[in-house]
Design goal:
The complex is a heterotrimer of chains A (about 300), B (about 300) and C (about 100). Helix content of chain A is about 70%, strand content about 0%. Chain A is mainly alpha-helical and about 300 residues long. Classes of the chains: A mainly alpha (about 300), B mainly alpha (about 300), C mainly alpha (about 100). Chain C: Keywords: Cell membrane, Membrane, NAD, Quinone, Translocase, Transmembrane, Transmembrane helix, Transport, Ubiquinone.
Chain lengths: ~300, ~300, ~100
């Protein structure tokens, strides 16, 4: 039974990765660009896979190889605590949102290691920039998730989904999802919070990557997008709850919706300098998330 | 089965703990420490402490990230390309470590250990919650207040501005050998001296601003020569005004190589008292007509932002 | 048996941490030694709670307190290092030998 469930989650993850890649290639149409067809990601990946990997001088080989694998594994662990149907998750952790929080923190470290290990300037700049940004993003993330745990009176994601039978957390805590989207943009290295990469530092942590390593890194980024969206769907949109259709279908639909939202936000919101973003994160977002927690706590009472 | 996993995790934790002091890079060291903590967390998970285990992972991941950021500031060898062994009283330390391990290990092996495991099916997370906000609330709150005091203390300790002037005022690097001459940066030009340094820039402007372009250029070069920290962007153009850009560009580099040393000897000590004055009395010079000091104030404000 | 393994690992971690705290010159490495000692303490607490206390919640509370101690040690430690660097431009223990006099 659990083997079947694990296989199902893995297949869903693979489909989600492909869907996310397609969303990324559809998004240029918003700005009048050309949208690509659904097969475009597969073609791009195949082209990446047959290319050679570039070598740098005196890299940390182990971490360079392991960073994409860690990233992918953390996304999978994060996804495993999300309930796929009512009362059914791959990992019945009583502290589901803390598990997700640990995955978040470790993802930031993985991105740092990915930039640190090639021993090259641009990746290193990306790594340090991202570490400085990723640290303050962890705090709103925790506040938002704790606020979502308050009405459920439990840290378990199954209980959190169960607590949304009457009304979704999106309604009870309207600030939660926007704040959590900021976290998602950071974790998936997207748009305004992609300080690890970006054209301004020639691709950042991936500047020296090519071939299979780059492929795996891109896949891991998309896998994190899927895991984040599934978690956001479970925490704010009621996850598998819904009429008529079976639970997993509802979860998949809501996940796809959050994925599209994240891709959109990453596409439409402008980037700023890291120092200005730090100011925004510490001075505005942190108090805002704290106020959100206080208000949610009062509503839950 | 559980025992085997615990043995493996314990070995992994001890091995990574040992690697912390054996690797050549601070980044590797701190992430080895993180792995050691993750091993502890894994043992916690296996020993039916889900919250403690997972919270340990979360805490240590964030903490090691902070460590990584601090290492950028304080480490000479973050990448680990050179061997790094900076130890003192090595034998004593090894001895102390071995004695501690032997003593504790003997205590573990010789004493009669209790045996009453957690009953399976206990909701330990809920128990912990009720304990934290029930009988032990005072302890928990004390920890909270202590953490608040820690935050305040950390901010105050690391703040550059203080009641009695800048924290790094008059700071001199330690000598290479005990009682030796200060090593590293020169005190009158050091990066930690943004304050006195801004005063110097202001002084240069006031004293020589009307002189030939060449001379001004030299001074600009002099300033940027000593600029180790963030105010490089401000001082060359901001302090000098109009003739800035091309002079800043053309003269800064020559001044560094040709006139830098000369300036250090010729102007350094002679200017020191005036620097001091400019640095110590910002209030009196707040009037807009005191041009150099106005710049100087701007300079310090800028430093404060950067650090 | 489980408790003995866990406690032995905890004492090994404590020993290594003590070695590091005593031997390292760099402040940051020294603090890693302190953290490692606390790691040993945390492991011992988890072991004792799980196998010797019958699941009394006070054991978990103690582990939480140890984590708070770690956070405090880290924050105040780095603040001290920053303050010291401002005053002395020093990042190794040898540089503050004047504290002896």
């Amino acid at each position: 039974m659990s083997v079947l469930l694990a296989a199902g989650v893995l297949v869903a993850l693979a489909l989600g990765i492909w869907l996310g890649a397609w969303f990324d290639r559809l998004a240029p149409a918003l700005e009048g660009g050309r949208a690509a067809g659904p097969m475009a990601p597969l073609r791009d990946w195949a082209a990446l896979l047959i290319r050679d990997q570039a070598e740098t001088e005196a890299p940390d080989r182990m971490n360079r190889l392991l960073a994409p694998a860690w990233y992918l594994a953390l996304a999978a662990i994060g996804l495993s605590v999300v309930p796929v149907a009512e009362g059914l998750a791959l990992w019945h952790s009583p502290v589901g949102i803390v598990v997700w929080g640990s995955c978040e923190a470790l993802i930031v470290i993985t991105v740092f290691l990915h930039g640190w290990s090639p021993n090259a300037p641009f990746p290193l700049i990306g790594a340090y920039r991202y570490a400085a940004i990723g640290l303050p993003v962890m705090l709103p993330s925790m506040f938002v998730l704790i606020a979502a745990a308050l009405p459920a009176e439990s840290l378990s994601l199954i209980a959190i989904v169960d607590s949304q039978r009457d009304s979704w957390n999106l309604v009870r805590q309207p600030l939660g999802l926007p704040l959590f989207l900021v976290v998602g943009l950071t974790l998936t290295l997207r748009g305004p919070l992609d300080f690890a990469g970006g054209v301004d530092i020639a691709g950042g942590t991936s500047a020296e990557e090519s071939g299979a390593g780059l492929f795996l890194w891109q896949v891991a980024r998309l896998a994190t997008l899927v895991a984040f969206s599934a978690l956001a769907a479970a925490v704010f949109l009621g996850g598998p709850l819904g009429p008529l259709l079976p639970g997993p279908v509802w979860l998949a639909l809501k996940t796809a919706l959050v994925m599209a939202l994240t891709v959109l936000a990453g596409r439409l919101i402008a980037r700023t300098t890291p120092s200005r973003m730090l100011h925004v994160l510490w001075v505005w977002l942190l108090p805002l998330s704290f106020a959100h927690l206080a208000v949610s706590g009062m509503v839950a009472l | 089965m559980t025992d085997l996993a615990i043995i493996l995790l314990a070995l992994f934790g001890v091995w990574t703990g040992w690697r912390v002091f054996r690797v050549d890079s601070m980044v590797r060291a701190s992430f080895a420490l993180m792995l050691s903590f993750i091993a502890t967390a894994g043992i916690g998970l296996l020993l039916s402490a889900p919250y403690i285990g997972v919270a340990t992972v979360f805490m240590m991941a964030v903490e090691m990230l902070v460590m990584a950021i601090f290492m950028v500031m304080f480490m000479m060898n973050p990448a680990g390309l050179n061997p790094m062994s900076m130890v003192h009283q090595h034998r004593l330390s090894i001895g102390a470590g071995v004695v501690a391990f032997a003593g504790l290990g003997a205590a573990v092996l010789l004493s009669d250990l209790p045996d009453s495991p957690v009953a399976p099916g206990t909701d330990v997370v809920a128990q912990l919650g009720f304990e934290l906000l029930g009988p032990s609330m005072l302890i928990f709150e004390t920890a909270g207040v202590t953490l608040l005091a820690t935050m305040l203390g950390a901010v105050i300790l690391s703040s550059r501005q203080g009641r009695f002037g800048m924290a790094d005022h008059g700071s001199r690097p330690p000598g290479l050998e005990p009682g030796g001459a200060p090593a590293g940066r020169r005190p009158e030009k050091g990066g930690g001296h943004g304050h006195g340094h801004g005063g110097h820039g202001g002084h240069g402007d006031g004293g020589h601003g009307r002189a030939s372009d060449d001379h001004g250029g030299e001074h600009r070069g002099h300033m940027s020569d000593g600029d180790h920290e963030g105010h490089a962007g401000y001082s060359p153009d901001g302090a000098m005004g109009a003739p800035g850009p091309e002079h800043g560009a053309t003269h800064r580099t020559p001044a560094k190589s040709e006139h830098g040393g000369e300036h250090r000897t010729a102007h350094g000590p002679g200017h020191a008292p005036q620097d001091q004055k400019a640095a110590d009395a910002p209030q009196e010079d707040a009037a807009p007509n005191a041009d150099p000091h106005a710049h100087h104030r701007k300079g310090t404000g800028h430093d404060g932002d950067d650090t | 048996m489980t408790l003995i393994i866990v406690l032995l690992a905890a004492s090994a971690l404590f020993g290594i941490g003590l070695y590091g705290a005593l031997s390292q010159q760099s402040f940051v490495m020294l603090m890693m030694g302190l953290e490692l000692m606390l790691n040993g303490a945390l492991l011992a607490i988890i072991g004792f709670w799980s196998r010797g206390l019958g699941g009394m919640p006070e054991g978990q509370l103690l582990a939480i307190i140890v984590m708070a101690v770690m956070a405090i040690e880290m924050a105040i430690g780095f603040a001290l290092v920053v303050a010291l660097y401002r005053k002395r431009q020093a990042d190794v223990t040898e540089a503050i030998g004047t504290l002896k006099r």
